[in-house]
Design brief:
Length: about 100
């Protein structure tokens, strides 16, 4: 296995946190917008503006879920690298 530097491990740690955070935020916002879509009147739902709202929301949720899963896999890879190399991605040991 490659000997990772502490800076590279910190970059991996920042990447997985960013991916999980951004993906989770996208899922929350998309679900909220889909709930707002349910409150529209039938005339508004049938308009051209809101024609593809549900499909777009489902696509965004699917892509965001894939990003969250990829970030979670990156986290498990980072933990494996930390165990095998004996190094930590936390510079001072106490950062969450």
């Amino acid at each position: 296995m490659k000997q990772w530097s502490i800076g590279e491990l910190q970059a991996l740690r920042a990447a997985w946190r960013f991916m999980v955070g951004l993906g989770s935020l996208a899922i929350i916002v998309s679900v909220g917008l889909l709930f707002l879509y349910l409150n529209l009147s039938p005339e508004q739902k049938s308009s051209d503006v809101h024609k593809h709202d549900v499909m777009t929301g489902i696509i965004i949720i699917t892509v965001a879920a894939a990003i969250v899963v990829t970030g979670w896999k990156l986290r498990s890879y980072l933990k494996k690298c930390e165990r095998e190399t004996g190094q930590s991605s936390k510079p001072f040991g106490w950062i969450p």
